[in-house]
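Fold this sequence, please.
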Amino acid sequence: MKRHILAVPTMMALSFSAPAFAQRSHPGGGPPAGHGPDSNPGMSASHGASSTANSSMSHGTPSDVLSHNTAIAGKIKTLTGQDAQTACGGFKNIGQCVAAAHVAKNLSIPGGFDALKAKVTGAGAVSLGKAIKGFAPDADAKAETKKANKQADDDLKETTS
């Protein structure tokens, strides 16, 4: 009789824990093998490539992007008055360069684009928002950063299509 009393709770514990073990069939929590974003049978590879082209464009190094996209180089020259390779030297990606160019133009930063570039890329570099606060204390730095990033994204989309 004592064995039956111990067997019942043991069996119940095992039966309730089975679903928990089943959920651990693929560690890491991602989709099961063969069901990742690249394995969708209804989607061609060109859809994935085109969607990543625009997002990687704003994150590409300035020299890489400018060597492939002369239209954005012209836009940067218009905004900064400088050759795009020179203007964007020191920025981590082309999106940062174009956004800084827009901020300098939008807010008429004292010292222009060069002064802003020195603040966000030089020794002791600060974020674009902090640089805006330093040059234009009365401006809403967060809103101006958001506006410039949107302008940069629009420029990059416009020049890649």
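Residues 21-32, 34-56 have pLDDT under 50 and may be disordered. The two ends are 79 Å apart (CA to CA).
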